[in-house]
Amino acid sequence: MVELESLKEEEKPERRTINNNVDRISSLPDCVLCQILSYLPTITSVSTGILSRRWRHVWKDLQVFDIDNAPFRWSSEYELKERHARFDSFVNAILAQRNADSYSIQKFRLTCQSLGETISAWLDAVIGPCLQELYLHRNFNHDSITLPEGIFTCPSLKSLILKGHITLFHGPKVSNVYLPSLKNLELNIFFGDIDLLLSGCPALENLDLDLYEFGLCIPKLQMPQTLKSLTFSEPCNYHEETKEICLREIYTPSLEYLHLSIESLEDAAMEVSVMHFPNMVEAHLSIDESTWNVHWVLELLHALSETKLLALEGPTTKCIFRAPSFEFPEFHHLIHLEVDLLCVSKSFLLNLLHNCHVLERLLVNIWQFDEEELEYNGPIPPTMVPNCVTSHLKSFEYTGYQDSADEYEFIAYVLQRGLVLKTVTIDFDHFKYLFHQATKDNVIMKLSAIPRGSTICQLNFI
Description:
The protein is an alpha/beta fold. The protein has a domain at 211-393. The chain contains 13 helices and 19 strands. The chain has helices at residues 2-26, 30-37, 42-47, 70-73, 80-97, 116-126, 194-199, 295-303, 314-322, 346-354, 387-391, 405-417, 437-448, and strands spanning 64-68, 107-112, 133-138, 145-146, 159-167, 184-191, 206-210, 220-222, 229-236, 246-250, 257-264, 270-274, 282-288, 309-312, 336-341, 361-366, 395-399, 423-427, 458-461. The model is unreliable at 1-16 and 238-242 (pLDDT under 50).
């Protein structure tokens, strides 16, 4: 008993410290407290009302809301419908009790599975002259929500992110789409006239379109010319009735960041029209295209000749291998290059390096085993050593080493002629089931014995 009382006495100073900290925070102005609460999930912000009378109504002045149905979704106390009803009642209470007359909502984030009519009513209450950011993720539900038209004429909206079972517009068309302040747009939705939406965004800078999950078929899509960043993912579809090929126009002179992922489906094709991108900083390409339609992929590479970082994923290099004859563009500013290969081709890599004049970092990854025999049809590389290898290349990484003759020859070429190399990393753990420990030791010894052109080069193995 004495020990328990002594323990309680020891806890008292700590309790006083906590209480003092709470009192200090409570003494802050409401505007500062709301700023703090805006970084928390809304359910946590609302629960601060139980701390004291001082906190009871603070959350009602919030202008930033982050509402997620996860705490209700995983509750085991009620059946599914009752859990949904509890969440809907929670959101209704928040929107009804907040000080809407004095504080307009600036940022609203909602993740839920609620019915379309319910969400539409919530959005009607949220839309206002001060709304700057709207995030809506509609988890799977049988009905698709159609968004209120007021969203598409919101003058202050800067960021719009829509995901899940969502339809953009009422009816086939809307009379007006105009978002003059919109800078960021991310879409992964069930259905909608995306081209119409893009046409009403005169200041758009960041666009993220993911059409994979729902397989939207859009016959023609023109990217806004104001874009600085574009992330575009889609399966290569066409209209089954008309056999119409999908057209994509990327006439974006200010584009700096490009992530393009296109997967060709059977008997489908896509035409992509591009322009020169003088401000390109990063380009990531994963393009799986049929042999007869690879011409636009090659044109795209030439349009990206000013980029500083280029990542060619496996499907893209497969397109280049399939091309009848292809000469790489001159990359005068490229300092970082990532290449995924289905098979090693020393000629392919050397041709690429000859056109990367200031390359500092090279990453080569053996993508996967492929039963299809691929042969590189490009020109025979020049006999002289690429300028970047002797003067600029500082880092070389090779992942998926399988100890083939071509691999050994290319790695030896870089090690012997790389005069400014600092690090070379070889990873054969990616296909570790190919090597017994004794084989690994022999491979390491063989590679370590290669003479190095750089006296400071460190050879690392994974």
